[in-house]
Amino acid sequence: MQVTHLRDAHAYMAPLHHDVLGLRLQGHDATHTKSFWVGLSYFLPGGCADRSVTPFEKVYVVVEGELTLTTDENEQVLCALDSCVIPAGEYRAIVNRTNRVASMLVIIPYASTPE
Fold it and tell me: Burial letters for 36-46: b for 16+ Cβ neighbours within 10 Å, e otherwise?
């Protein structure tokens, strides 16, 4: 078993994210996962992830607060414990339109086997 205590999680800056702090909970430099990694993102009020696309699917789980996710198809507001899957190849943008910090778990497969 590999455990990451929140107090020991390493911060990372995700590309195309603004006023968002990410903490690595599993995978990459945190643990030795082989197929996916997990991050915890804190979105400040007005914090956002610019419209972008990835070649693999992702799972988002809002832990606290409220985040608005926009795709080319629609827009959804996710609240605490709401979740969604963003399919591979789908564009998405995320914004915190509230005056409270929002947090979200991010589960993403590796693009290739981690080193």
Answer: ebbbbbbbeee
Nearest to 43 by CA among 24, 21, 60, 62: 21
Question: Any idea how long the chain is?
Answer: 115
- Tell me the per-residue pLDDT of 24-62, one tens digit each, with 9 for 90 and over: 999 988 899 989 999 999 999 999 999 999 899 999 999
Question: DSSP letter string over 70-96?
Answer: EESS-EEEEETT-EEEE-TT--EEEE-
How many angstroms from the chain centroid is the CA of residue 20?
A: 10
Locate 29 and state its tokens: 């430099």
Backbone angles phi, psi at 8, to 5 degrees: -105, -5
User: Closest Cα partner for 86 from 41, 52, 44?
Assistant: 52
Mean pLDDT over residues 73-100, rounded? 97
CB 56 within 8 A of CB 37: no
